Amino acid sequence: MSTNNKITMTHTYNITGMTCTGCLAKVQDLLQQVANVEKVEISLAEGTADISMKKHVATADLQQALAAYPKYQLSEAENHHHQMSAGLTTDEENRTWVQTYKPILLIFGYLLAASLIAGYQSSFTIMTMMRIFMSGFFLMFSFFKLLDIRGFADSYSMYDIVAKRWKGWGFVYVFVELGLGISFALDLAPVIVNAIMVAVMSISLIGVLQSVFNKQHIRCACLGAVFNLPMSTVTIIEDGLMILMGVVMLGLM
């Protein structure tokens, strides 16, 4: 049996100014981008953050990460820091690929089953199958984002090239997804709807690619602030698949 000799230090800090899950997501994403920070767990109720790090990170560096948002103030919490022993790993590190992405895998599985059933109702048509799949995709994903739209907008602004410049795009994007889902379900103006979908998803994919290739530790906002999914190649495949289906549908029209 192999052992993991990595030592991870975890320190607790007080953070003021957080009022909602959107604030929590913003602070978490900012702190996770600090060099040598491995994991950030925040308690909104207690106003504390447990930060795990590979090497000691100065409090000033953590405060600097929040400098652009002065309402969030970080300070050391007395008598609340500790060092994990060698050979221990966090629960997140021990999770398998399937455990990490289980929510997305289940959603895609259900959507694929529903779209196949719809496509086979009379005689199988690939157009119907793809249209139903995309309708379910956008309706389902917009639903999770609407559960905490502010939290999604905060997370989305961390990597999307448009939302970085205009945070309001995160709020608009949710309703664009909802509109696409309804339009695909009703088969409204398929050429226009598919063209809009390809354009929107392509722009979104740029930010995802930049984050993954730069190895940024950012939470994926695809399922809003409900699930803590890491940004990875899975997100690229997810966006790329939707773009590919839209292009195929445009080509078959």
Number of strands: 6
Mean pLDDT rating: 81
Approximately what portion of the residues adopt beta-strand conformation?
5-15%
Largest sheet, if any? 4 strands, antiparallel
Q: What value does the Rg take, in angstroms? A: 21 Å
Q: Please state the structural category.
A: alpha+beta
Cα distance spanning the termini = 57 Å
Tertiary shape: elongated
SSE order, as H and E? EHEEHEHHHHHHHEEH
Tell me the count of domains: 2
Quickly count the helices. 10
Strand ordering within the main sheet: 2-3-1-4
Low-confidence stretches: 1-5, 81-90
* Fraction of residues in H or I helices: 40-55%
GO cellular component, one term: membrane
GO molecular function: metal ion binding
Subcellular location: Membrane
InterPro entries: Heavy-metal-associated_CS, HMA_dom, HMA_dom_sf, Methylamine_util_MauE
Q: Key features?
A:
single chain, 253 residues, alpha+beta, Alpha-Beta Plaits, 2 domains, 4-stranded antiparallel β-sheet, two-stranded antiparallel sheet, 10 helices, 6 strands, 14% strand, transmembrane helix, HMA_dom_sf, metal ion binding, transmembrane
